[in-house]
Write a structure and sequence with these properties.
Largest sheet: 7 strands, mixed
Strand content: 5-15%
Oligomer: single chain
Number of helices: 14
Number of strands: 15
């Protein structure tokens, strides 16, 4: 044994390390992604949505014409043509963004960590929706904030019900306004305007996480918070859901005075995001086929979502309800109050189907009778079979609960 390595348990951990927890979602996915399981669990793009041929062609071209640039160290801010393309696209969507405001990150998960590192101290108040994205809670929690859940309903956050004192005291509000993970809900336009107005008046920084905004099934996505309150928003985006998660290319847009510190945090984290994957993202964003590619994904997900909604309506027992997303990758199921979806998970797995229990998506007040379903990766026949199996599992649990009540 190397005498320079102390025995296990002898290291002095940083205080923040004690606040780090394993992702319950990732642990569940290890089981849920077995090949014999119909999985509605993982938030993965459809394998058919991955632009393999375009990526292959782009990679060959990059290595032929820009190999040194792609394989060398690069600027911490990111590949300039990609930053320019992102700024131009966001500006066409209504937000006046300059390339200087864009920081390329190693996935949007790194963007969450950078924001937390720069803005959160132990005890800082952080406002979040309920339920909310588990990855954001995990990124923020290691910096030991106090989470404060804001009022929400079926349409999302309710600005008029937010406490103004909490808004003034909070370091940030984290929100996914478009096709939220996990619920699939979309914040209505009038609420966006009201939220932007209150945030500007009270000095609240909003972290707008938008990995799904371009996956709208019909019409257009509502205007971003960034377009309504550019000086009060850090906007996060990602190419994971629209090109490929394996590229690990995301970005954030921030006011200039905040960007200085975010860039310094990025430099301390990993120097820069991989040059070759940034160039791949740029190539696909600017090759003239990006919008056609997006439309194909939208059509696929719209059909798969419609099929899951149809099957839920046909097979689910009374007392079960669900959201009807207008885009994105998820829908949210609410079970009768006597059913704990975490305990239901093993029963469903035994029947060959998997989901994510809803309690995982709450920071402070979990609701046990909820679950998240993903419709993007299962084939149509699997969606129907999986929902039938899940419905039977729920029915069996309801019957068992009713029998216990009778016996008592």
């Amino acid at each position: 044994m190397d005498r320079h390595i102390p025995p296990a348990g002898r290291w002095q951990l940083a205080a923040r390390a004690h606040h780090m927890k394993p992702s319950s979602l990732r642990e569940l996915l290890k089981v849920a992604e077995r090949p014999d399981i119909i999985s509605f669990a993982g938030g993965l793009p459809s394998p058919h949505a991955l632009p393999v041929e375009r990526l292959s062609t782009a990679l060959e071209r990059i290595l032929r014409h820009d190999a040194v640039g792609a394989l060398q160290y690069g600027p911490s801010e990111g590949y300039t043509p990609l930053r320019e393309a992102i700024a131009a696209r966001l500006s066409r969507q209504g937000a006046a963004v300059s390339p200087a405001q864009v920081l390329i990150t190693t996935g949007s998960q790194q963007a969450l960590d950078l924001v937390a590192r720069v803005l959160i101290d132990p005890g800082s108040r952080v406002l979040i929706e309920t339920p909310t994205y588990l990855g954001a809670v995990q990124a923020f929690a290691q910096y030991q904030p106090v989470f404060d859940e804001v009022p929400t309903d079926a349409a999302g956050l309710v600005p008029e019900c937010m406490d103004e004192t909490s808004m003034r005291d909070a370091r940030l509000l984290y929100i996914q306004p478009n096709f939220q993970n996990p619920t699939g809900r979309t914040l209505p336009l009038e609420r966006r305007r009201a939220l932007a107005s209150r945030a500007k008046r009270l000095g609240l920084l909003m972290v707008e996480d938008d990995p799904y905004g371009e996956l709208v099934y019909s019409g257009v996505t509502p205007p971003s918070l960034l377009s309504m309150a550019p000086d009060d928003v850090v906007h996060l985006g990602s190419f994971s859901k629209v090109i490929a998660p394996g590229l690990r290319v995301g970005y954030l847009v921030a006011p200039e005075e905040l960007m200085i510190k975010l860039l310094q945090a990025k430099q301390a984290s990993d120097l820069h995001t991989t040059g070759i994957t940034q160039r791949l993202a740029h190539a696909l964003l600017t090759d003239g086929e990006y919008d056609t590619h997006l439309e194909a994904i939208r059509l696929r997900y719209r059909a798969q979502c419609a099929l899951m909604l149809k099957c839920l309506a046909e097979y689910m027992p009374d007392g079960v309800s669900w959201t009807r997303p207008a885009g994105g990758m998820f829908l949210w199921v609410t079970l009768p109050p006597q059913i704990d979806s975490a305990s239901l998970f093993d029963d469903a797995l035994a029947c060959g189907v998997a989901f994510i229990p809803g309690a995982s998506f709450h920071a402070t007040s979990p609701k046990a009778n909820t679950m998240r379903l993903t419709f993007t990766t299962a084939k149509p026949a699997q969606i129907e079979t999986g929902i039938m199996r899940l419905a039977k599992t729920i029915e069996a649990r309801l019957e068992k609960t009713a029998s216990r009540l009778v016996m008592s």
